[in-house]
Amino acid sequence: MPAEVGRDEIISYITKRIEELRRELTILEALLHMVKEEGSHIEERKHARSNHPTSVKVISVDGNVVADIVESGDGVKIVFTETIPSNNPVVKSFLIKLLQDKERKGEIKAYEVNERRGFITSIEIKGIPKRSFYRELELALEYVWEELHGGKH
Questions:
Q1: Other C-beta atoms within 10 Å of 112: how many?
Q2: Contact at 8 Å (CB) between 67 and 27?
Q3: If both were cysteines, with which of 68, 108, 117, 142 could 127 make a disulfide (CB 3.0 to 4.6 Å apart)?
Q4: Cα–Cα distance for residue pair 146/152, rounded to 1 Å
Q5: What are the extents of the domains in the chain?
Q6: Read out DSSP for 91-105?
Q7: Using CA atoms, how far apart are residues 76 and 73, in angstroms rounded to an integer?
Q8: In 67-129, where does DSSP find H-type helix?
Q9: Among the ranges given (12-21, 118-127, 141-150), the one the predictor scored with the smallest mean pLDDT
Q10: Could you tell me which of 67, 79, 95 has the C-alpha nearest to residue 34?
Q11: What is the β-pairing status of strands 110-116 and 119-126?
């Protein structure tokens, strides 16, 4: 006879499964965007290989996936697993300021914040940043996540 499953266990399972599906959808959307972008630049076929993702790094805080960092030959795309209000003060004063400073110092060529209906869905960074940039970015994303969720993980 099968063991009885509690309501909390079912809710936990469903919640985790939804997060997994959202993450998968986010990665698929990022890859679709990259494929569409590549297709619109057929004349740049020589450089098309550098547009393929070379790695995907998952940023998580206490088991919660915060964002995926999709690295390609010419830059990085941060794809959030959860949309972030674009007018959020922590995002503006911390994450965007970090990107502005890196651009001003020439450590990245440019960045573009992609928004949909007042929420940030992803950030594209042009140029190949230094390895230390990734750690700074990871810490910034973790901090933003914690602030958005009231310090709770």
A1: 13
A2: no
A3: 108
A4: 6
A5: 7-148
A6: IIIIIIHHHHHHHHT
A7: 8
A8: 89-90, 97-104
A9: 141-150
A10: 79
A11: antiparallel
Say if CB 95 and CB 111 are below 8 A apart: no
CA distance 148 to 153: 10
Question: What does the DSSP assignment read for 5-60?
Answer: --HHHHHHHHHHHHHHHHHHHHHHHHHHHHHHHHHTTGGGHHHHGGGSEEEEEEEE
| The pair of three-digit structure tokens given for residue 124, joined into one six-digit string | 């594209």
Structure tokens at 15: 């919640």
Contact 55, 68 (CB under 8 A): no
Residue type, 75: G
C-alpha 109 chain-centroid distance: 18
| Tokens 């209906």 belong to residue | 117
> What tokens were used for 147?
């602030």
pLDDT in tens, 107-142: 889 999 998 888 888 889 888 777 778 788 888 888
Cβ atoms of 80 and 25 within 8 Å: the answer is: no
Both tokens of 23, joined, read 């993450």
22 Cβ contact partners less than 8 Å away, ≥ 6 residues apart: 81, 82
